[in-house]
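User: My instructor asked us to take a sequence, write out its structure as tokens, and then describe one feature of it. I'm not sure where to start. Here is the sequence I was given:
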Amino acid sequence: MDFIEAAGRSEKSGFQKFLSAAEGEEVSIEGAVHSVRNMGEIGFVVLRRREGLIQAVWEKGKTKLPLSSVHQGDVLSVSGMVRNEERAPFGRELCVEQAGYLSAASGPLPLPVDKWKLNTSLEAKLDRRALSLRHIKERAKFRIQEGLVRGFRDFLYSQGFTEIHTPKIGAKSAEGGANMFKLSYFHTPAVLQQSPQLYKQMMVGVFDRVFETGPVFRAEKHNTRRHLNEYTSLDLEMGYIDGFLDICEMETAFLHYAFSLLEEEYGGELELLKVSLPDVSRIPYVRFDEAKQLVSEKYSRRIRNPFDLEPEEEEMIGKYFKEEYGADFVFVTHYPSKKRPFYAMDDPEDEKYTLSFDLLCKGLEVTTGGQRIHDVKALLGKMETRGMTEEGLEQYVDAFRFGMPPHGGLGIGLERLTMQLLGEDNIRETCLFPRDMSRLEP
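Assistant: Let's start with the prediction itself. The structure tokens for your sequence are:
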């Protein structure tokens, strides 16, 4: 009987060997044809791998596979001698001696993925998503997004958090309201979850500190540059806190860790996209009511809605703190109770406000969080004042009946955070396969 050993496939024979080989050494490598330049006696084929682009040189008559039969999108296996060339990616190129197909493209690519800038509409990019992401700048956005998720996980593991995975189909949503996707679950009414909030809180009574990364669903009839109907949320919940500022401090430390990780291990992508990450070692914070007053006075804008921030106000708050403090991030705290969910803890000094916050990044809300009610009597009291019953929330309330530590948490919109860091104008640019009011495919 034969066995397969648990050893990952070595890349030393491919890309890594190409990078480390001495000039004149022969190597073999596989890759997708990113671009072809046929100059007659000589030609250049740029191969695309996850690590970057490789320049392969075709000299007429040196290989049995003629350059005229190589097309963009083909996947090839090539062998040849390594030669130093400062104008080529990584400062070297491969002089091809043998080449063969792994697969062949069936026709010309409908998008110019080999160009430095992908000059096409957002709709065209989304319609042909599997192709548009072959563009190295488009792909780089999602490498950076990967780094944010990786940083979130790694940092929270280091802080004693347990990763959990909660259901996305439920009988009742955490947030309530009308913006829920309803479905029939074996002939029983159900909804797609707007948040893992209730499960996170229940698990604080088990693990003390928990986090999750996963999709959430909002049936909001928005068609704006900042909204999606399905997005990825980075959620955490932590017990035994002294106050909601503990949550703000944890997020600040996460961002500092994640940005350091991006600079250390994703520097190529940051440079490719010309992204400079902000300093997040210290993030200012301001009360909700004070923030509204500040921007109203500085920018001569009348306060229209005393209970929430309008998009223009968020932009102005971001502008104010950039101008006054050089800060790209700002915590806006003490949101009105009227605009926060039933589980948000009211400020004991003024119950019109809550011990909650939003984090704005360059004038856009990317995080919502705060301290939660942990006393069952206070929880039931607030539910009663809002006309709520325990129906559909029995297990949630039971967790509090049997004791729950002081706790709080947050949810970060991954696509929004990525969009703001990269300076994109539309959140669909930082979502692999967006779901909005008009898009269910691809």
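For the description part of your assignment, you could build on this observation: The CA atoms of residues 292 and 303 lie 7 Å apart. Try explaining in your own words what that tells you about the chain.
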